[in-house]
Specification:
- With 304 residues, the chain is of the alpha/beta class.
- The protein folds into two domains: 3-228, Spore Coat Polysaccharide Biosynthesis Protein SpsA, Chain A (Alpha-Beta Complex); 232-304, no CATH class.
- 41% of the residues lie in helices and 20% in strands.
- It has helices at 14-28, 51-57, 72-82, 101-111, 171-182, 201-211, 235-255, 265-278, 280-303; strands spanning 3-9, 34-40, 62-66, 87-90, 95-97, 115-126, 149-152, 167-170, 215-228.
- Strands 1, 2, 3, 4, 5, 6, 7, 8 and 9 form a nine-stranded mixed sheet that branches.
- Strand 1, helix 1 and strand 2 form a beta-alpha-beta unit.
- The radius of gyration is 19 Å and the shape is globular.
Length: 304
């Protein structure tokens, strides 16, 4: 089985990208048939001209593709269309993979032919140590540390839903995701674009496996590190992210004909009471998510 590795990037930190590519190069030594597609999404920092970066691209297996439509969603879609192999893996431009990452991913794809989308463990590599009151909310940054393997065909099962960092999908699953966009069944982007922190495109893509009668899963053997700069472990950023997650959840559920509940007045009162014990930070996160959910419903209404 061959694999297409897709890296979508927009004005990447060149030093971090160098480390990403370095980890990829080591991991690629363990597999035989692959292609690496670097999707440049309108970057303006000339990262391709960097000597170290260009050295990775100077071979027949790596290819740079420009995508002019801004946003992670168009970049992912372009990568899928350009890919040619049976298995696709999405690597973010701040992910450092383990040396056996792709080898293990291919083994899982072969051993579990009924799994259409899966990912593994994501260990956060923080630029600076997070303050104590921030630590309970680091899960918002897609931290996944677990033991064992878990899979299902249940779209709302958080214990088995893969994440976008290191997401493996079968080509037919990814092609169906492209079809949803090409046929107008997705009326807005559910991914980062510019200053927007919307997300959920990875969940939508993974759920395409379920649409096709396959399963989704999490496997402990595939591991990567997710680099987190200091700016992303600040309260202001995490609250903004939490708000965007609330908005994204509503839109994703709407795309998939499910209802995402709006917190009731009782839930708001309960959150206020709980915050008396847990502190004001707890309520700030509850409230930011609540506001995001309301925005999500406004977006849905405006698109109808």
């Amino acid at each position: 089985m061959a694999i297409s590795i897709i890296i979508c990037t927009y004005n990447p930190d060149i030093k971090i990208l160098d480390n990403v590519f370095s980890s990829l190069k080591k991991a690629l030594n363990y597999i035989a048939d692959y292609e690496v597609l670097v999707i440049d999404n309108n970057s303006s920092n000339n990262f391709l001209n960097d000597v170290k970066i260009s050295s990775y691209l100077n071979n027949d297996y790596w290819k740079v593709i420009s995508e002019s439509k801004q946003g992670l969603t168009p970049a992912r879609l372009r990568g899928i269309v350009e890919s040619k192999n049976e298995l696709i893996c999405f690597i973010d431009d701040d992910n450092f993979v383990e040396e056996d990452f792709f080898q293990k991913g291919l083994e899982i794809a072969i051993e579990y032919p009924f799994i259409g989308a899966f990912s593994g463990q994501v260990i956060l590599e923080l630029e600076y140590k997070a303050e104590k009151f921030i630590k309970p909310y680091l899960g918002l940054l897609v931290r996944r540390e677990f033991s064992g393997n878990y899979w299902s065909n249940l779209p709302e099962n958080g214990l088995t839903m893969p994440c976008g960092a290191g997401l493996f999908v079968r080509k037919n699953v990814a092609d169906y995701y492209v079809y949803l966009h090409d046929t107008g069944k997705r009326v807005m982007q559910l991914d980062r674009s510019g200053n927007s922190l919307l997300s959920g495109g990875d969940n939508d893509l993974a759920e395409c496996a379920i649409d096709l009668g396959l399963g989704v899963g999490l496997f402990e053997a595939v591991k990567l590190k997710h680099y987190i700069p200091k700016s992303r472990i600040q309260l202001k950023y995490l609250l903004k992210l939490n708000k965007a997650i609330g908005t994204s959840s509503v839109v994703l559920y709407n795309f998939r004909n499910r209802y995402f509940p709006i917190p009731t007045k009782f839930a708001v009162i309960k959150a206020i009471l709980v915050s008396v014990k847990r502190g004001p930070i707890y309520f700030k996160f509850f409230w930011s998510n609540y506001q995001g959910i309301k925005i999500g419903y406004s977006l849905i209404k405006s698109k109808k």
